[in-house]
Amino acid sequence: MLSASVTNDTAFHPSTFILLGIPGMQDQHVWAAIPFCSMYILALVGNGTILYIIMTDRTLHEPMYLFLCLLSITDLILCSTTLPKMLTIFWLRSHIISYHGCLTQMFFVHTIFATESAVLLAMAFDRYVAICRPLHYTSILNATVIGKIGLACVVRGLLFVFPFVILIERLPFCGHHIIPHTYCEHMGIAKLACASIKPNTIYGLTVALSVTGMDVVLIATSYGLILRAVLRLPSKDAQFRAFSTCGAHICVILVFYVPAFFSFFTHRFGHQVPPHVHIVLANLYLLVPPVLNPLVYGINTKQIRLRIFGFFMGRR
């Protein structure tokens, strides 16, 4: 029994938690890990390549590419926060995680998610200024402003997520330590408590709707204004290219937000959702965007595509 491996539990905080993996699919864990591992490798290679090209080519030190660089960094941290532990659960049956290790993982998962949401908003604003205010682009988005935006993205995530740790620390667990998940997240831990988790639920909803929800609204507004400007372009070919680019961006944004909100609201209202569906989607929103972002924002960009081609041709 897994529970036999857990010792020295206290009545208030357990010394360790057990991550079950995907409930109902324990027999398929070995095979389920293969596509997750493959996507993780693609995310590492794709984002690592984007970072290398932008950092080594000074001609790409422009607002759009600097934001893309920040996005790649958050993608690498986001998937690396959960995937290595998940693979050890699936392949090595290493289900145990320490109490403080679990809280650390929870903190980084939610902080990096909030940071990436802010980065996507910044990139949408960058595209809005580039297309709708092209004459003022360099004056609005200079190096100082970009640095402040990047810092604000990180600080905002830290400030809004740190209370999650405090809210978890105040809860007694009465020996409950089995989490039916592949990683530690706020509500997954809180639901093990043997006390009221109403403050956790209220604060979680407030952050999701007022912070992440506001990001979604502002991103949608930015792309709405961009599409309105695109429709005014005289060239049909230019319109087609702009629609293709914006369409790809919107699809990736939806892949990032829809499973995240589904997972978030399932914890609170989705009692009829099968646990394995919930957990799989909760993993996909942390893994699929890091795989797709280098393709949509990076390789789909002509300047980066040319440099990737030149890099590999030069190695031959």
UniProtKB/TrEMBL annotation:
Give the source species.
Answer: Vulpes vulpes (Red fox)
Entry's Gene Ontology molecular function annotations: G protein-coupled receptor activity; olfactory receptor activity
Principal subcellular localization:
membrane
Compartments reported by the entry: Cell membrane; Membrane
Tell me what topology the record assigns in the membrane. Answer: Multi-pass membrane protein
Q: State the protein's name.
A: Olfactory receptor
What is this protein for, i.e. what is its function?
Putative odorant or sperm cell receptor.
The G-protein coupled receptors family 1 profile domain extends over: 46-297
